[in-house]
Amino acid sequence: FPDRTEASRTLALELAALIRTINESGRPAVLGLATGRTPLPFYGELIRLHREGQLSFAKVITFNLDEYLGLPGNHPESYRAFMRRELFDHVDIPAENLNIPDGMVPPEALEAHCAAYEELIRAAGGIDFQLLGIGRTGHIGFNEPGSPRGSRTRKVELDPITRQDAAPAFGGLENVPEYAISMGCGTILEARRIALLAWGAAKADIVKEALTGPVTDQVSASFLQEHQDATFYLDAEAGSKL
Ligand code: F6R
Asked: Does the keyword Hydrolase apply (predicted)?
């Protein structure tokens, strides 16, 4: 796409149509959602479609990819706060349909919390549409290099590059959490349709590696090459090395 606005608009229209089709078949649509800077124009388009009366989230269930460990839901950099601010507060999604890992889960309850998250996804019928960004380490969710293809929701350690990229938002590297809870590569790859967004020249190298390099656990996004319905939505800069 020439720019992120056009890419976001195209995908938002696709997703609105998918939600309508699934709802018309008599069941809620199950979405996997991402945070970070990348999805902002996309969420803006979804909100616009909702305001124009073209898209309802009344029968939508969402699962977020990840959450920082140690951040309460009311911390402005928590992904729970992010999702409220950037999407949920502006659309008609029922509060009980939102699922985000709990960053304040005590260590002794962490494993059970992650297993319960996986079970909730299963019980909802699996993810119809998974939105992804890509980190400069090639991560999807927070599946940093070395995350196995079959990994599930679990505690993960953030790569130094990922923490560096988050430092400005946290007002310094020392404030960036070291750990997160993330859906695994296996969890993500089970989604029936996947859309990965990437904008800007800083993502061009890793986009090229993910799409045209070897399929390897050193670049989690490369696993998408083997998915039957995954699409990369790129602006001109992010696609400039292809
Ligand atoms: C966010 C997530 C991450 C981001 C990635 C890109 O929920 O799981 O994989 O998508 O770190 O972040 P931005 O969009 O800020 O460049």
From this structure: yes
In the chain, how many domains are there? Answer: 1
| Residue 212, in any domain of the structure | yes
ipTM metric: 0.99
Q: How far is the CA of 33 from the centre of ligand 1 (A)?
A: 10
Q: What is the CATH number of the domain that holds 12?
A: 3.40.50.1360
Q: Is residue 178 part of a domain?
A: yes
Per-residue pLDDT of the chain (242 residues; tens, 9 = 90+): 999 999 999 999 999 999 999 999 999 999 999 999 999 999 999 999 999 999 999 999 999 999 999 999 899 999 999 999 999 999 999 999 999 999 999 999 999 999 999 999 999 999 999 999 999 999 999 999 999 999 999 999 999 999 999 999 999 999 999 999 999 999 999 999 999 999 999 999 999 999 999 999 999 999 999 999 999 999 999 999 99
* C-beta 78 within 6 A of ligand 1: no
Within-domain flag for 164: yes
CA distances in angstroms from 115 to 48, 71, 120, listed in the order given = 35, 20, 9
